[in-house]
Design brief:
4 copies of one chain form a homotetramer.
Chain A lengths: L3 E7 L15 H16 L17 E8 L8 E11 L3 E10 L6 E11 L1 E4 L2 E4 L4 H4 L7 H4 L1
Antiparallel strand pairs in A: 1-3, 2-5, 3-4, 4-5, 6-7
Chain lengths: 146, 146, 146, 146
């Protein structure tokens, strides 16, 4: 579906900290990896020259709520959903589930707003999301975002 | 003052990504470093056995708004303020300023909520902030938080 | 085979630096991930309580030679081989190949020596690799290590 | 002296892993930070347009020997020495000392070879170190490298 994507990853040793759990900053790396896989699923790289002029996607807002820790070798599903779609910006919702639990448990939720920019003379400026890409991206149904 | 702390750091090469700017996840590492320096300024380590039983401070909520990028070798001031103080939790506000700009410019703001926990039999549970520590921490004046 | 293991991973955005390539320190994270997958393939976690007393594997020597850069979204195969096996230590050889090249190209080689330790009273000391584990690990054939 | 540089840094929480010690890959980040500070001490940025054409310094070889762990809030001195100087490459030696020990203790040594390159049409090629920079860099005295 053009409004969501799921990736699964295994927690690596270097993702953990001395508290024995995934360092909280790494959830933001995990979110981004799901976003980039979503773009690939649409036939695009997030770092793309497939549109003219090339666009980039700097992050303007990021947040995460942590409910339960992730540990080394845990399997985590990162479920990305498109929560908002504006002419120049997208907002994603993320749900993190630990899969090696029975039943699987939601360990965190996240939210990320990114803006579409072009670069000219070393300066970024917000731009309309290229139509070829925007046409492929839908907002997720309300019930999935609740 | 027992309601704020400032650190200055220089952006390292490994903090940057292929977009040529500090990766957005690293602002959360910077926040935490300011928090830990604040604790040291009170005579405590965030990983402390100075209280009995030992307490830890897992993060339960983190957010950041990005206004302007940071680049390699930029000098950034991270100003931490205590925004909320509950019996078992603290919320900090962070302001990031790029110092090698004239005038200095606010590049990001952040917010972090941490909860005081003890560990027993491998399980964390929220606990009242030890009095010796809580007594030293004040909420910042409203005008600084606005 | 109990003397090698291969993993494939895709370069993530946060693995890159402002030079547009994977930061050189991340090759060491990649090596370790292959090592840990090798252990899992033997039925063990590198962080194991499956042996009594539990053992750990601190790194005592690490090296990497870089031949060609890796970039965002490249697919890299990390091929781990057991190069040396002593009573208390293992040395691995690693070959990194970029798969999305035709023909695939070796971009780096690495070498890692780890030592088996137990912890007692907060002190690590080298110990003989537990027999149940050591019996499963072989040194790779010479021609593969050349 | 134009053949060495020392930096001191405090181990951050996010530098540690679940073993409670600095993750071995981070020693390579620490090395690089000392190198870049050395360049700044000479009046250059490692990412420089101060020479024409601009040059970069990709790593071609890196190694580290680990003798004793570093832990959260340890103060570590990274002492960088120029060990070799060729027309197109430099090799540095690094000594890591934990300062909050009495006496201070050497916890690791490292070695890093970097090559001077220019970029043309998206391709890197090794180039002679610009004279203005090369003239400022000396090889450390033998007794310091032993």
């Amino acid at each position: 579906m053009p409004y969501e994507f799921k990736i699964t990853r295994r927690v690596e040793f270097s993702d953990t900290d001395m508290a024995g759990i995934v360092h909280y900053s790494n959830f933001f790396r995990y979110m981004e990896t799901a976003e980039h896989a979503f773009f690939r699923s649409l036939g695009y790289s997030i770092v793309t020259k497939q549109v003219d002029p090339p666009v980039g996607w700097p992050r303007v807002r990021a947040e995460c709520e942590y409910k339960s820790p992730l540990r080394f070798e845990d399997e985590v599903e990162v479920h990305m959903l498109v929560a908002e779609k504006k002419s120049k910006a997208l907002t994603y919702l993320f749900r993190f589930h630990k899969l090696n639990a029975n039943p699987r448990v939601e360990v965190a939720t996240g939210r990320l707003t990114v803006v579409c920019v072009t670069h000219a003379q070393g300066k970024m400026s917000a731009t309309t999301i290229p139509k070829s890409l925007a046409d492929q991206i839908e907002i997720a149904p309300k019930e999935l975002l609740a």
